């Protein structure tokens, strides 16, 4: 845990440190939920102005992205990938799972377009699917690479 700037705020006792981290995580999730409720209330009742909604949504996005990026860069997702053969097997699984995600994403987007819930062109649909799949693939690949390097160093 010494790799994070948060350690300066945590006690030296391991049990207390872990409990405080749980409390911080719980507060983060509650905060995200609260912001989501405020955005929904604003959307349907107009309590705040439109700019406030964008600010709240950007806070949710930034906080969520920070946690996601830290998790990816930490290299702890693939703890059992040490050998090159395990790495190749996980890479094949990763490509398969991101492909399934792309099909599911495109299916939901097509269903939303066909039912008229959202209005966008087929080019937009293709671009959103490719972009989301590309970002997920890159993030998972970086996570696999970092985990593989870290596990090789430890063994």
Q: What do these coordinates show?
A:
The chain has 155 residues and is mainly alpha-helical. It has helices spanning 14-45, 50-74, 84-115, 122-154. Helix 1 (14-45) packs antiparallel against helix 2 (50-74), helix 2 runs parallel beside helix 4 and helix 3 packs antiparallel against helix 4 (122-154). The longest helix is centred in the last third of the chain and has 33 residues, at 122-154. It starts with 13 loop residues before the first helix and ends with a helix. The relative contact order is 0.09.
**Radius of gyration using CA atoms only:** 20 Å
Residue share in helices? over 70%
Continuous helix count:
4
- Largest beta-sheet characterization: none
Described by the principal axes of the CA atoms, the overall outline is flat
Low-confidence segments, given as residue ranges, are: none
The structure class reads: mainly alpha
Query: SSE string, helix = H, strand = E?
Result: HHHH
Mean pLDDT: 86
Task: Measure the end-to-end span.
Answer: 20 Å
Give the strand tally: 0
β-sheet strand percentage: under 5%
Keywords, separated by commas or semicolons:
4 helices; mainly alpha; 79% helix; 155 residues
